[in-house]
Amino acid sequence: MASTVASIAPQFDDAAQQRDASNLGIWIFLATEVLFFGVLFAAYTITRTQHPAAFAAGSRLTDLTLATINTALLLTSSLTMALGVHAAQSGARRAIVGWLSLTVALGILFLAIKGLEYHADYVEHLVPALNFSYPGAQASPVELFFYLYFVITGIHALHVFIGVVVISVIAYMASKNTFGPEYFTPVDLTGLYWHLVDIIWIFVYPLLYLVSRS
Amino acid sequence: MSHVEFFPAAASTIAGSIDNIYFVWLALSAVIAIAIAVLVVIFAIKYRRSSTADRTVAVGARYEHTMHRIEVTWTLVPLIIFLAMFLWSANAYYESATVPHDAIPVYVVGKQWMWHIEHRGGQREIGELHIPVGRTIALVMTSQDVIHSFSIPGFRVKQDVLPGRYTTLWFKATRTGDFRWFCTQYCGTAHSLMIGRVFVMEPGDFDRWLAVSDTEGSMAAKGARRFRQFGCSGCHGPSANVHAPRLEGLFGKPVQLQDGRSVIADERFIRDSVFLPNKDVPANYEPIMPSFRGQIDEEQMLEIIEYLKSMENVPQGVQR
Amino acid sequence: MSSISVAQHENYLTADFRLWSWLTTLDHKRIAVLYTVSITLLFFIGGAAAALIRLNLLTPYSELVSIETYNKLFTMHGVIMVWFFLIPSIPTTLGNFLVPLMIGARDLAFPRLNLLSWYLYVIGALFAIESLIAGGVDTGWTFYTPFSTMFSNTHVFAAVAGVFIAGFSSILTGLNFIVTIHEMRAPGLSWFRLPLFIWAMYATSLILVLATPVLAMTLVLIAVEHFFRIGVFDPALGGDPLLFQHLFWFYSHPAVYIMIVPAMGVASEIIGCFARNRIFGYRFMAYAMLAIAAFGFVVWGHHMFVSGQSAYAGTVFSLLTFLVSVPSAIKVFNWTATLYKGRISFEAPMLYALGFVGLFTIGGLTGLFLASLGLDVQLHDTYFVVAHFHYIMVGGAVMAFFGGIHFWWPKVTGRMYSDAWARFAAIVTFVGFNLTFFPQFIVGYLGMPRRYPEYPPEFQLWNVLSSTGAVILALGYALPLFYLFRSLRDGPTAPSNPWNAKGLEWQTSSPPLPENFLRTPIVAEEPYSYSSDGPSHG
To answer: From the list B258, B259, B278, which residue is nearest A138 (CB)?
Structure first.
């Protein structure tokens, strides 16, 4: 088996310091992501409070089936990612590559279904600034709902895409036997990022699709 | 150079209390700033490197205790002063933010880059505001475009003027004369030109001014015409065959909404009902009212509001 | 401690002279120098805008520039000075250089992220400069909606993009500092042995990391709304322009603490050294900075007392604002007490630091005026506010920054500058600053609004005084360019510890080795262990 010991970057004294620094770094990064999305959730919540009926109407126009499938896909991908991290800890090369590839596949499937959703929205004239039309006096606040819907799900999808790319790179590195018990930090950090992307979706899904739907 | 000003005129009932807060802060700040400066200078001289002043530092628990007490003191004393000033100024703020129930409304529409005024009697002004001395005036304001702000430094009043909602500012002038008014929220190119003058007149002079000013009828009368012109009476009038709320005596009363909330039928409620009719739908009514956005402008909306206020069983004055 | 001769070992400056080595460096000291050059350039661009503003305000009518141009000038002045000068200033220049040195490390935790930070800053600055060259932006640095999103037809998108990109530079810097300070302290260097400058960098980094993402997303929202002409801030659609203000100030208030807390750290280092005394109340000083960072997140509504926000919200924000001023007051008292029984000398860094204490005190006191709800109604959006924040940001932060530049110049460059010229510049700056900004308090209470190229003629005296001061202030800022550059050419070589200061950065050569220390230091003494009894020793 090839060496799985990481080279220690010159600024660090030892591998433990390097690992601790990387871990603290990723957690701080995740905190910034939480605040980043927090703005969107705040904007959504406040606008929703001001237009409860219109936002409920907007929710009803979203595709609950596709979104639920996406939720299942993303949750499953978090499981496969966690199994990938576990495999990396034990250095099982084929298992790492397998689980990470499955995670990538689920991520791509998520994005594809999102694309289907967006296409359906386009066909139904629900895309603000493009072809939005809605009958009655509620048109404007419903358009605001969809504006937020596209912004929130769009930025989230961007994060999914970035995750897919990064996990693919990590999977490739894993196929070259880079990871093992002494060094699996990149897999670990990527896993944390992916879990955050999943957690954000767990807030997005009920806020956009479930609340006041009935 | 023209005549120099050092301090603004104090021309309203609240100006005195605001100025008092200012002077107290000025005094406190001067005391603290001078004390710090004096100490720094004294220490800088006494303990300059070449001086032979005694620098032995006491040690031990008693010294530590004294130092600790000093630190606690200079933490608590400012805190207590701050809290006192907070309470005083919050109280002054409530006074200026609570519109007295006997205030006479004057309506203001701000737009890039001018101020449109309309008195209840239908008298209009641009960039000038004539008011009687000694009477409580409440400005009900909205913007037609971006955020502006209405400020009369001599009265110590200021309030941002927002598109899509009404904000209110009240004052009671204590002297006659004319006073500057500025737009104080940057609103684009001619922000600095969006200024005006407030003319405070003796009540007799003001009444004469009202009488000679051109009007097309009072705001309420104009509002009644708009009410018919835009078709409101078609659904809200006595012979309507649509189930729509009757509006006589509505203004200022609580309204039960479809989602269980209860709101007061104030200026905001009326405006939202016209432009965003599905926002606050009254209980037991269908959300079938169309939106009049783009059809009724801000000034016409205010005339309609005045009309509704003028209907029977309505308490006079301005709702906050 | 013998100083390490520069001739015997290469230092970080002489390690490689090629430009490419600078542009690809991972050395935190070189990155600090790169930042210093960049922000100096941006400072003078923002300063040029200020000069034109003050010149235009000499007369009550906008005679030097059109009112359209004036609106663009104050916008660009604000955007550049806030995001491209003040926020990066001390952290990316002095912070990048000193954090590893002060804690005995070889570099920051993530050198490549550090270099990326600089490139992001440069790219952001290029966008901002592009928006300037293409014709400017006229929304004010605060980008209030709906004007910025629906009405302005200036280059909003480019300016917003520039700030957005530069924001990531800030976030990465903050992340780097937090991890470095947590994980890479030298043996024996416990938290309460850290210099207060490190505490300042730490507290600042917490704000950088938690507040800047909020700005980033808010900028995305206004960029999208500006571009697509639809969004949640547009009242015509049922949106709320006040929502923008809440989101904007949620970041921008903590941002002002990003600008002042580093200055507080610098002041503590300088005052401790030139008073040759322990900083009075060291723990309180550290806790105060953390308290300011934390409380700074809950006071944003004090920018919105007359915005239409509820009186209830205003009351809460006013109370919290008074609370956040207490830690700052404690710091001023502690700096003053540090002078007591010290051995004080008045080299240029000390003059700047003492100037900082005085001007920060005045700026902070005037903040109390603004925190008072009833009084703020009169003062909001007038020159009183302009004077208040310039006292803190310019009289405070910029003076401390200059003090820090002068204090650590020998360490960074290996050269001494002319202290006589430097003291002269410090005094000129102090005088010019007060003449520029004190009259603005007076004309503010008179009611002169901000962002006005034209004003009532009765206000002219105060404007003329202010503009005269600006000329003197500009001289004060220009002078260091001359004597500092001259020191690079033929200033005396600096020893490793020219000021006899405490702190690990002074125990390595001037300039430092590329790897900072020959051997990782071990820390066994308390910070600021200046002895006041007997002769001082190195």
So the answer is: B278
